């Protein structure tokens, strides 16, 4: 296979990158056994779709983690959900959509609207722009996400309601996980790479925010995230 380069946000909180969807993509590539070079780009507007991550392959720049995974699955022949039943695939799909479409907004709210998150954004902005521009740049990032979250409806709720919504999503993940090593089977599915991408940053970041604190208080979820972090291509065959 041609050389693959993956552009992501810089490492943060002990993770390969601070970007949830980049973490998802990198974990999928690890499970597929596909080698890649990771490069750091903290200005997502430089990507082909104006967001992180994106890849360069065969002279093309391709954005959107889902589109990238679909392309790489076709090229490699790796099906992360092979041998799963129709019901297991459906549960994986539904949980992934909940995490990526709903829980993602909770993550963004805690990072870009909650006061503790806003302060952390200032620290991250210091890596991207000269000192005099750190304050304005951080304010611009946070304002952008506040507007997006309000347009999508999440930021129209109170902080308490948003926290309750996020914790309800965590309850659902835990209930479906049960005593299984992974969400729907004894090996990772798409739901697992998505859950890892969205939950691992909140479990790792040092800021005290309500839903992140809730993840940190759940040993079952923390153990699950550690399992996903450690599993690699050579282990994916186990059923």
Offer a few descriptive terms.
Glutaredoxin; Glutathione S-transferase Yfyf (Class Pi), Chain A, domain 2; globular; alpha+beta; four-stranded mixed sheet; 239 residues; 4 strands
Summarize this, please?
The chain is of the alpha+beta class and 239 residues long.
General description of the model:
- The protein has 2 domains: 4-76, 3-Layer(aba) Sandwich (Glutaredoxin); 87-234, Glutathione S-transferase Yfyf (Class Pi), Chain A, domain 2 (Up-down Bundle), CATH 1.20.1050.10.
- The protein starts with a strand and ends in a 9-residue tail after the last helix.
- Mean pLDDT is 93; it is low at 235-239.
- It has helices spanning 20-32, 65-76, 86-112, 115-125, 134-152, 159-177, 190-204, 210-216, 219-230, and strands at 4-8, 37-40, 54-57, 60-63.
- The chain is 56% helix and 7% strand.
- Strand 1, helix 1 (20-32) and strand 2 (37-40) form a beta-alpha-beta unit.
- It is globular and about 50 Å long.
- With 239 residues, the chain is of the alpha+beta class.
- Helix 3 crosses helix 4 (115-125), helix 3 (86-112) runs parallel beside helix 7 and helix 4 (115-125) crosses helix 5 (134-152).
Strands, helices and their partners?
Blueprint: E1 4-8, H1 20-32, E2 37-40, E3 54-57, E4 60-63, H2 65-76, H3 86-112, H4 115-125, H5 134-152, H6 159-177, H7 190-204, H8 210-216, H9 219-230
Parallel strand pairs: 1-2
Antiparallel strand pairs: 1-3, 3-4
Helix pairs in contact: 1-2, 1-7, 3-4, 3-5, 3-6, 3-7, 4-5, 6-8, 7-8, 7-9
């Amino acid at each position: 296979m041609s050389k693959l380069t993956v552009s992501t946000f810089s490492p943060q909180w002990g993770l390969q990158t601070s970007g949830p969807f980049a973490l998802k993509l990198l974990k999928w590539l690890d499970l597929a056994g596909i080698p890649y070079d990771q490069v750091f780009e903290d200005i997502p507007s430089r990507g082909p779709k104006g967001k992180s991550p994106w890849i360069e392959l065969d002279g093309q720049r391709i954005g959107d983690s889902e589109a990238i995974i679909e392309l790489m699955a076709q090229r490699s022949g790796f099906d992360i959900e092979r041998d799963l039943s129709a019901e297991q695939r459906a549960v994986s799909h539904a949980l992934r959509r909940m995490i990526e479409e709903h829980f993602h907004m909770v993550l963004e709210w805690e990072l870009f609207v909650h006061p503790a998150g806003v302060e952390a954004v200032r620290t991250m902005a210091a890596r991207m722009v000269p000192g005099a521009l750190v304050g304005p740049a951080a304010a611009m990032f946070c304002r952008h996400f506040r507007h997006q979250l309000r347009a999508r409806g999440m930021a129209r709720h109170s902080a308490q309601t948003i926290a309750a919504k996020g914790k309800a999503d965590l309850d659902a993940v835990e209930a479906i996980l049960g005593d299984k090593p992974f969400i729907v089977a004894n090996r990772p599915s798409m739901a697992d790479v998505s859950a890892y991408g969205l939950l691992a940053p909140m479990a790792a970041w040092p800021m005290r925010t309500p839903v992140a604190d809730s993840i940190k208080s759940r040993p079952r979820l923390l153990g699950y995230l550690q399992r996903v972090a450690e599993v690699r291509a050579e282990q994916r065959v186990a059923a």
